[in-house]
Q: What sequence folds into this?
């Protein structure tokens, strides 16, 4: 155990933005508890451990109450205070709402929304009791627009954005920082898993997850309430969405996400 290091938690850390966030933490002298629902979390933990950081990895299904409780028990089992947490685990699903599988959509709500609320309730309680700590919640640029053909997914991200900003306001007079990370399209396995390979956004240019993670980490350490992370294109999208009517944003999103639109 490297007692000089702080301790951070990163969920969804087996690949993509989550793994890049975990890398940022170990590069800044944090030990980690990392989790994902796939076996790749153990390979990721081994790679992260090359830095000399202490890495505790757990493969767990955060869609379930017991899964979140198990992860929290792992954190408490370290016997160390949790200095920072990045609640990043999430999945997407493209396609028409009336045709998509209901079970898949409810599972997405369980992971993206319920697990984040549950885990935030646990870790923030401890942080507030100590009057210190940092919490990063991965939202999305999609939270700023109606997500046609990603209706449930982007609904979950709109919830997370509102949730993060609301609780940040509640805790503004404490030593606890809450930051929402708002990436745009990022070069991960997200669009393939969301069955969006044939869409314009699925086939278009994407941001580097390492850049997104670095900007998110820096914003968290700076105490920023939110950060639109990635390229200037993504930042410009967020600026435009502040003034564009919702009906136009929904139509724009349709062009990017409608199945077959990238062919």
A:
């Amino acid at each position: 155990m490297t007692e000089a290091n702080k301790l951070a938690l990163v969920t969804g850390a087996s690949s993509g933005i989550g793994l890049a966030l975990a890398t940022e933490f170990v590069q800044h002298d944090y030990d980690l508890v990392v989790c994902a629902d796939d076996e790749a979390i153990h390979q990721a933990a081994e790679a992260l451990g090359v830095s000399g950081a202490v890495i505790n990895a757990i493969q767990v299904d955060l869609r379930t109450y017991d899964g979140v409780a198990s992860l929290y028990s792992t954190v408490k089992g370290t016997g160390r205070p949790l200095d920072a947490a990045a609640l990043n685990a999430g999945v997407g699903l493209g396609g028409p709402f009336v045709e998509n599988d209901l079970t898949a959509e409810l599972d997405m709500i369980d992971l993206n929304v319920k697990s984040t609320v549950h885990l935030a309730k646990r870790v923030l309680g401890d942080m507030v009791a100590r009057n210190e700590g940092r919490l990063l919640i991965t939202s999305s640029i999609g939270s700023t627009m109606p997500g046609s053909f990603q209706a449930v997914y982007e609904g979950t991200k709109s919830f997370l954005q509102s949730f993060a900003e609301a609780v940040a306001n509640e805790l503004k007079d404490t030593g606890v920082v809450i930051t929402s990370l708002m990436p745009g399209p990022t070069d991960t396995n997200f669009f393939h898993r969301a069955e969006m390979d044939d869409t314009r956004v699925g086939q278009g240019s994407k941001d580097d997850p390492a850049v997104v993670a670095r900007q998110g980490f820096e914003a968290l350490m700076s105490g920023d309430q939110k950060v639109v992370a990635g390229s200037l294109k993504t930042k410009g999208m967020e600026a435009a969405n502040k003034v564009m009517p919702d009906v136009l944003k929904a139509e724009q999103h349709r062009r990017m996400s409608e199945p077959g639109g990238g062919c």
In short: The CA atoms of residues 56 and 248 lie 46 Å apart.
